[in-house]
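Hi support team,

I'm opening this ticket because the web form for multi-chain structure prediction keeps timing out on my end. I have pasted the exact lines I submitted so you can reproduce it. The total is 491 residues across two entries, so I didn't expect it to be a heavy job. Is there a limit I'm missing, or should I split the entries? Thanks in advance, R.K.
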Amino acid sequence: MLSILREEPERRGEGEMDIGVIIAGILTLAIYSFLYRDNPIYKMAESLLIGLSIGYTLVIFWQSTILDLLIYPLFGGGKIILIVPLFLGLMMFSRFSSSLSWLSRIPLSFMIGAGAGVAIPAMLYARTLKQVSASVTSIVSANGNFNFSELVVVVGLLSTLSYFYFSRHHEGALGRSAKVGTYFLMIFFGATFGYTVMSRLSTLIGRVDFLLTDFLHVIK
Amino acid sequence: MTNLKTRWIIFASLLALAVISYSITIKLKIRPSPQVQKTYDYIENLPESSAIVVSFDHEASSLPEIKPITQVILRHAFRNNIRIIGMSLFAEGTAIGYSMLTRTAGEFGKSYGQDYAFLGFKPQHISAILGMGESMRGVFPEDYLGTPIDSIPLMRHIDNYDSIAMVISIADGDRAVQWIEYAGARYNQKILAGLTAAMITTYDPYLNSGQLFSVVGGLKGAAEYEMLYGQPGSGSRGLLAQSMAHIFIIALIIIGNVIYFKGRAGKKGRG
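Hello R.K., no limit was hit. The queue was backed up. Here is the completed structure from your submission:
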């Protein structure tokens, strides 16, 4: 089934037009027609995008999970142990029946238990311990130089943490610290938003590149 | 109607600006950031025949940003005769990754199985990352084309992270975080990330703590890398269009604020 997806498109000669490029070019323009207003051409392109994405993902999952990991090894390779995950998977579908839905709790508990067992130690180490140790730095370096960046990190960390301390009213020293924390948060949100705008513009430029280079051949 | 007109003017101007600035060739002075320089230096200094994993952990929608980054990194690796093992932890990245890897390998006359291979997509990414630390052939018994992994010459002596110089996760989300948390933390594997600009701030804490070796981020990162590689590509060309669009947006923000404050001052004066 995947063989069609795996085929590499043939290299085309000078001046030859790929039908895929023509379709992609027309669909790109159809999507951008939304900038004028919602219209049937845009709706068609949008539905096609969603349908294709879901269809493609379904094919990939069917091949790489159901066939490669279950059906072939179980029925072709004789791995009898795979009956266990097969039954656990089938139990998930018991949710469709009100009288049997309790069965779905068994695979769910297995998944949550195994997931938590794997994730908690890793996340505790990578997201908490390593991050805390990276935050504990010296403001004065070994050769006696004052490190302004580290001071900013310390002030930013403490003031932002104080903003999320809700057991006391944000008054007095805590209030002032929390206020400073909001400024650090705003700087972070601003930087993130700026990068997001940059990312979206890159998407536009990518489409302009495709339209000018591959579709219209204006740029070589 | 006025809102629609204003929107039209803004969108049409932005599109026109992107088209014009993308079409003209102006050589921008690009200075590589420390992160991009670090990535370039690391790949440049890898011994020939080292093996690296490039994981295409992204959706098709982020291709405009991802493609320039991926292409220049792949070209650099192939130029230095580094062997590449491609894979994907995101279904949509699978065909894109295979296509990019195959085409770039073709530019350098590299042969499949000897110089590069593509293992395909694996669901349950955490299990896959952890499993690769024990045995890559256990996680990927076959490659993307259905060839048994033992029949691929490149894979004969590679079975876990011990034989891999680094993992490059090309990501538009948090998949690279999982590489850091599982392959990096547990197996001490060096992790690099090629990221969309929107994700850069998410990865900053991992960079500062040293858990992530380096980052090539967005079109800007791609342009910087292309400059170091010595062959300007779509990243460098796109950077001019992006800079012009940024100037345009900043101008719009200033104009919008001037109009707003003038209007408010006028209202106060009348009130």
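A quick check on our side: The beta strands of chain B are 51-57, 83-88, 116-121, 166-171, 191-195, 214-217. Let us know if the file doesn't open in your viewer.
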